[in-house]
From TrEMBL:
This is ClpXP adapter protein SpxH. Interacts with Spx. It comes from the Bacteria. The keyword DNA repair does not apply. Keywords: Cytoplasm. Adapter protein required for efficient degradation of Spx by ClpXP under non-stress conditions. Interaction with Spx stabilizes Spx and exposes the C-terminus of Spx for recognition and proteolysis by ClpXP. It is found in: Cytoplasm. It holds the Pfam family Thioredoxin_5. InterPro entries: Adapter_SpxH, Thioredoxin-like_sf. Belongs to the SpxH family.
Length: 268
């Protein structure tokens, strides 16, 4: 792999007891970042006991400051709606102010709407509806969405992207629990086995794979899945995965969301 570089550990390392931390640099609206989700979800299912994830939003934008000034008017009702490519990233950061899990739920829903392409994800109104759908505290979210804190959090992600010289999205930087050790930057997307090998190398031991949960339980962890993701996680072909998903659709446990480009399955 030519796109592998060694980096210094960030100034603020993870304090959790899992030995590996992944810094995942994504553009939440980019198709390549959406495609990497399949690999990441399988890694989380099989080896999530070894690592935690931190998502770094890396959408390059030149007019962030002027856009956030307009948002203040929007939040107070001076504008009915605005659209801007920075809005989804700032909304994700606003959701993260309610906790990591809230931010993760919101990010997943943003990616779902982006994949389906049925709504304008750059719309302020759409992003408010997503917050309601994932059960965020709406008073907090509305205040945070138009705040300097959310804009600064996004700017910090852009700074971290530049500081680590991440020039290709998506990319992953692997850090272990020792702050003196250097991180490993992997630019671009690779086969699942490559990331599996990197985890084993960083840990210096043979990995213990966790068994995938039952499909119903998987939908409590990832509320929306593609047929390909289910097939990959359970190491079956897509035809077998689709049969299992259709059974649950008949049982009214999941619903199918289809467009010309993609089919998603969502827990009901």
């Amino acid at each position: 792999m030519n796109n592998v570089q060694v980096l210094q550990q960030p100034i603020t390392p993870s304090t959790c007891n899992k030995p590996i931390e992944l810094y995942i640099f994504i553009d939440p609206l980019d198709d390549r970042s959406l495609a990497m989700q399949l690999t990441l979800r399988k890694l989380q299912v099989e080896y999530g006991h070894y690592f935690t994830c931190r998502y770094v939003l890396s959408t390059e934008l030149s007019s962030l400051n002027s856009m956030t000034n307009r948002m203040k008017g929007c939040v107070t009702g001076a504008e009915l709606d605005i659209t801007h490519p920075a809005l989804p990233s700032i909304a994700i950061k606003a959701a993260e102010l309610q906790g990591k899990r809230a931010g993760f739920r919101y990010l997943n829903k943003v990616q779902e709407v982006t994949a389906l392409k049925t709504r304008n994800i750059n719309s302020h109104a759409t992003l408010i509806e997503i917050a309601q759908h994932v059960d965020l505290d709406m008073n907090e979210f509305m205040a945070d969405f138009g705040s300097k804190e959310a804009a600064r959090a996004f700017q910090c992600d852009l700074y971290l992207t530049r500081e680590m010289e991440v020039e290709e999205i998506p990319s992953i930087v692997f850090f272990n629990e020792c702050i003196e050790d250097e991180g490993l930057k992997v630019c671009g997307s690779y086969n699942y086995e490559v990331y599996e090998h990197i985890l084993a190398e960083l840990l210096g031991e043979e990995l213990i794979r966790q068994q995938a949960p039952a499909l119903d339980e998987l939908f409590t962890r990832f509320t929306t899945l593609t047929t390909a993701e289910v097939a990959e996680i359970y190491s079956i072909n897509e035809q077998a995965a689709e049969r299992e998903l259709k059974k649950r659709m008949l049982q009214q446990k999941v619903e199918r969301l289809m467009t010309d480009d993609i089919t998603l399955w969502r827990a009901k």
